[in-house]
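User: Here's a structure from my thesis project, written as structure tokens. My advisor, Dr. K., wants to see whether a designed sequence matches the one we expressed. Can you design one independently, without my sequence as a hint?
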């Protein structure tokens, strides 16, 4: 089945507020205070949601990966990503921090990652020292939800929009571990605009710097290519209607099915785009992964 992809791409997306530059410096300065870095990434876009500067920043510091929002991702693809990280010697766990799914493995994963450090401390008689970890991730990836789950209480403010956590916070856990939460941080320039698109799809870039309709058009093209059945079922589209359709035609079809019409029967595509992105970000469109290893 062939699809006509949009010829025009999302205009170049660059978004690096001043507080993010400050966070990067803060992260570097705080590394000496922690034993391990816990990196949250979005299971739907594991490549795009990894800060490419992180490896250079943390150096040889032990770290593990949580593939968050896994309940909204394609399980088969997530398993491929876990195998990918394992080959690189990194423990990776699929999680859903809002529901707590997968977090029962968290403590064990931290202990496995720090096995050598723990043994050195044991030999020095320091086995009572608390394990300190830094929580890092891009905006809107679920850091606050993770901390609240691990603490068993709402210790961190949770909102489904980027830029809520502003300063570093130390949080003590019942198992004796301590967490250092960091504000979400992107990187200064997106060399690959496909990365910027994927981040925009999941809400990690503020919508007010984006062309919402063009973003929805691009998302529809990807869904029509990779998850046509889910797209048709969600918006009651005929499978044959996807054949040869470009993203804007699909956006009009979705808006028409949802009754988003203006005078004269014209589809309100802006309203349809906002609805589409909200539903995708909320996970109600089914299990979708936009990237593979």
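Assistant: Designed independently from the structure alone:
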């Amino acid at each position: 089945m062939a699809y006509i992809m949009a010829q025009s791409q999302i205009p170049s997306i660059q978004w690096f507020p001043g507080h993010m530059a400050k966070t990067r410096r803060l992260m570097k300065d705080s590394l000496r205070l922690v034993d391990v870095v816990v990196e949250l990434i979005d299971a739907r876009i594991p490549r795009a949601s990894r800060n490419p500067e992180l490896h250079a920043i943390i150096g040889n510091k032990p770290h593990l990966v949580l593939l968050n929002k896994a309940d909204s991702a394609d399980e088969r693809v997530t398993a491929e990503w876990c195998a990918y990280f394992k080959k690189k010697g990194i423990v990776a766990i699929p999680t859903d921090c809002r529901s707590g799914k997968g977090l029962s493995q968290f403590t064990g994963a931290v202990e496995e990652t720090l096995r050598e450090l723990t043994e050195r401390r044991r030999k020095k008689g320091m086995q009572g020292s608390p394990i300190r970890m830094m929580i890092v991730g891009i905006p809107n990836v679920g850091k606050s939800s993770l901390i609240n789950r691990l603490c068993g209480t709402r210790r961190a403010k949770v909102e489904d929009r980027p830029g809520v956590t502003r300063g570093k916070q130390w949080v003590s856990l019942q198992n004796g571990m301590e967490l250092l939460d960091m504000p979400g941080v992107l990187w200064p320039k997106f060399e690959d605009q496909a990365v910027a698109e994927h981040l925009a799809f999941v809400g990690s870039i503020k919508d007010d710097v984006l062309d919402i309709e063009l973003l929805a058009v691009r998302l529809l093209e990807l869904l029509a290519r990779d998850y046509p059945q889910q797209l048709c079922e969600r918006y009651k589209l005929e499978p044959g209607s996807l054949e040869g359709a470009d993203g804007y035609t699909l956006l009009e079809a979705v808006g028409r099915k949802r009754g988003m019409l203006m005078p004269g029967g014209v589809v309100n595509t802006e309203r349809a785009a906002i609805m589409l992105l909200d539903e995708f970000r909320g996970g109600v469109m089914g299990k979708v992964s936009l990237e593979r290893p």
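When you compare it with your expressed construct, this may help: The two ends are 24 Å apart (CA to CA).
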